[in-house]
Amino acid sequence: MDLLQKVNTLGESAQYDLCGPSGSQTPSKRNDFERWIYPAARPDGKRIRVLKLLQTNVCQKQCYYCGIRAGKDVPRASFTPDELARAFDRLHRANIVNGLFLSSAVCTSADWTMDQMIACVELIRERYEFSGYIHLKMLPGCSDAHVERAVQIAQRVSVNLEAPNAERLARIAPHKTFYDELMRPMRLAKHLIDEGGGRLAPAGQSTQFVVGAAGEPDREILSTSARLYREMGLARAYYSAFNPVPGTPLDGMEPAPAWREHRLYQADWLLRFYGFAYDDLVIDDGGNLPRRADPKLTYARNHPERYPVEVNRARRDELLRVPGMGPRTVANLLRWRRQGVLRDLSDLTKAGAVAGRAAPYILLNGKRPPYQLPLWEPDPDLRDW
Asked: pTM for the full model?
């Protein structure tokens, strides 16, 4: 198999590991090597072009949802560390990529495969003198020594939890252990990152959940994410809506709707950027986020005692809970109101707010702004919230 065939095979196998700003799986382009280059955002907000590949898709695991599980008849390929490091260097020197996302199936053992991945990254760092962004997966059950080396040579590390707890994981990946194989590397990585004082894995660590494969409600996913943000210093969580792969044990199950994944990302942003706690999220009787309105709007409707908020006097945390206002909008409003009284919805629009969404929940200089109630709720499947 030639190099381009390997890139295509291992890029195809890596496509469900998420790295985009909103969990996007859309590559930058669709030709040759560039087919597997994805846009990603660094912690400083700068966008970069990331090559996303597996070291190998030869897997000994039998996760029920996975398209490259052991025994499944799919094209298999592996890179040697030297092959992949050399290919990445060529792309970087041609200014086609400026980052690498390296994951892998578990071949032979987690430690053997991690040896290959770490050797590849060491070559990229030392032989090819690349100092830019690398996101390195830590494989389930890998040794403490591999975790330590991973945080030394990568900007970001991650372990895919796949499910929110041990009981749910057993339904989709019965050969993996939630606490020993998945949480243990994450806890050690946190300890090392904290001890490193910003020198080790400076972009932190992330994780990913397969949404809907194990029958879990949103309540379980979000409570786990909130705990990881609070206790593990998680940089971010990714949510991937389950889509059954033909020929796997979960073939025939209903796929998770795209709107559910979208709602989880919206709730996740409230936890990460808006000062919401898990207990602030409104969950329905089935344990899920409501479909018909986004989580922030649902919160506002369920807490009429907290509104309207006077824009000219409210604290930052109060303004962040107003629908239609984000952190940048709030920062602008806090700055502008020091220069004069905000009196009109046009001031909110100039600040970046969606004024029509904010209007029912605010006062401007003691007065309610005019607004029109919507005649119906848009279907989240049909518009970008």
From this structure: 0.90
